[in-house]
Write a structure and sequence with these properties.
458 residues, Aspartate Aminotransferase, domain 1, Aspartate Aminotransferase, domain 2, seven-stranded mixed β-sheet, 12 helices, 15 strands, 35% helix, globular, binds 4'-deoxy-4'-aminopyridoxal-5'-phosphate
């Protein structure tokens, strides 16, 4: 039990002095005290299993000892910008990071947030191709800056002011909620319950969605474009997965139009999908630019754009500067995170524990009508809640909220996503264990059972 802290005072200051645009989770938001690996502790001394990892930022574990020690050491030495001088940390980090990426992705530009990284990726795509138009998926979140807001396509984040010129959105190839379902066409241990008309080796849903992509290319943009940006698995929208070959075909169509392909790995990078270190590898493609944030720093504010020598040089025609990007502190954190992923075997853990969790959650989907879809790969998991599996109508907000609050009260924190906030997002620190999964699934089961009992009593 920790020293008590005046909760009401904190709440009051929050209401009076902090931007109301920053909305909080839960009826009674948590007042956190500390974190350790996959656990968070509040001021009342309650422990929570963190299945949302500080919005997918905590990759290796809250306050991972290796990252903490490395950061503390560097804090005592030097942490100001070294963009205009040299410090070994940035060279060493750039070498380490790029060694994990395939050719020709070998040049790094470090920034401080995912929005900044995607801003820069858009800028480079335009400078390099000398084209302007960029395509993104509906339902995507790529940032909140005026530049990236054009790519972000979720109504909740849209403001009625001019932003993001030259951005077009295209239909999301969502095989659960979209018009064409695919019961065996996504790269996940769990497939949708929706029937599809795919025949051996031919994915009908994929072909239909590719037709929609071509339609966007033919109707919304000029003959030549600057690029296309997509996450390998859509994050904020609730771990939406596309048919297996969609990205590969889309990349080819984009390149035929002179565009470059950007993979937003802000959520899917650093081993989270389990089978591969980078999400794009699960689609068997090599992008021209990848953007990294969140898990790159295990919660420390840092991000990166990695691209080819040629594309990087488009930005060198003039000066482009970022004061904090690539500080020694950030580079030391980033390097320690990469070491921890390797030394703790976290990619493999994502695969093993993630697959186990997906299969356990699929049992709940089969038992409860309101669990419409369980999907994802590794520890990038979505559980979509519906009124019933046939209609796939989103479960009303009050009902989802109750299940979600119940889970929190029983000690499990889960994220929310999707257009109607109907999907539970499960993206824990990658150090989570099977025992934790058993606990989380049991809690979720109890919350669902209570929900069904309440619904039956109505
Ligand atoms: N891309 C993706 C996929 C994201 O999920 C986010 C943040 N939710 C961003 C970009 C923007 O990152 P940041 O909040 O660090 O600007």
């Amino acid at each position: 039990k920790y020293k008590s802290y005046p909760y009401e005072r904190m709440q009051k200051i929050r209401e009076q002095s902090i931007s109301p645009s920053l909305r909080m989770y839960y009826k009674k938001p948590l007042l956190l005290h500390q974190g350790h690996m996959q656990w968070l502790f509040d001021y009342e001394g309650r422990r929570y299993l963190d299945l949302f990892a500080g919005i997918v930022t905590v990759s290796v574990g809250h306050c991972h000892p290796k990252v903490t020690v490395a950061t503390q050491k560097q804090l005592a030495r030097l942490w100001h910008t070294t963009n205009i001088y040299m410090h070994p940390s940035i060279q060493e980090y750039a070498e380490k990071l790029t060694s994990l990426l395939p050719d020709p992705l070998k040049v790094v530009y470090l920034t401080n947030s995912g929005s900044e990284a995607n801003d820069l990726a858009m800028f480079m795509a335009r400078l390099y191709t000398r084209n302007f138009d960029i395509i993104s998926f509906r339902g995507a979140y790529h940032g909140g800056s005026p530049y990236t807001l054009g790519l972000t396509s979720i109504g909740l984040y849209k403001h009625g002011v001019a932003n993001g010129f030259g951005c077009s959105t295209t239909m999301l190839p969502d095989v659960f909620r979209g018009p064409w379902g695919g019961s065996h066409c996504r790269d996940s241990p769990v497939q949708t319950v929706r029937k599809c008309s795919c025949s051996e080796g031919v994915c009908h849903a994929n072909d239909q969605y590719i037709e929609q992509f071509k339609d966007t290319l033919n109707t919304s943009v000029p003959k030549t474009i600057a690029g296309f940006i997509a996450e390998p698995i859509q994050g904020v929208n609730g771990a939406v997965q596309y048919p297996r070959s969609f990205l590969k075909e889309a990349y080819q169509l984009v390149r035929e139009r002179g565009g470059i392909c950007i993979s937003d790995e802000v959520q899917t990078g650093f081993g989270r999908t389990g089978s591969h270190f980078w999400g794009f590898q699960t689609h068997d493609v090599v992008p021209d630019i990848v953007t990294l944030a969140k898990g790159i720093g295990n919660g420390f504010p840092m991000a990166a754009v990695v691209t080819t020598k040629e594309i990087a040089s488009s930005l060198a025609q003039n000066l482009h500067f970022n004061t904090f990007g690539g500080s020694p502190l950030a580079c030391v954190v980033g390097a320690a995170v990469l070491d921890a992923i390797e030394e703790d075997g976290l990619q493999k853990n994502s695969e093993d524990v993630g697959t186990y969790m997906l299969l356990e959650l699929a049992k709940l989907r089969d038992k409860f009508e309101v669990v419409g879809d369980v999907r994802g790969k590794g520890l990038m998991i979505g559980v979509e809640m519906v009124t019933d599996k046939d209609s796939r109508h989103p479960l009303p907000a009050e009902e989802i909220n109750q299940i979600w609050e119940d889970c929190k009260d029983m000690g499990v924190l889960i994220g929310r996503g999707g257009l109607y906030s109907q999907t539970f997002r499960i993206k824990p620190p990658m150090c989570i264990t099977k025992k934790d999964v058993d606990f989380a699934v049991e809690v979720f089961h109890t919350a669902l059972q209570r929900h069904m009992e309440k619904a039956a009593a109505k």
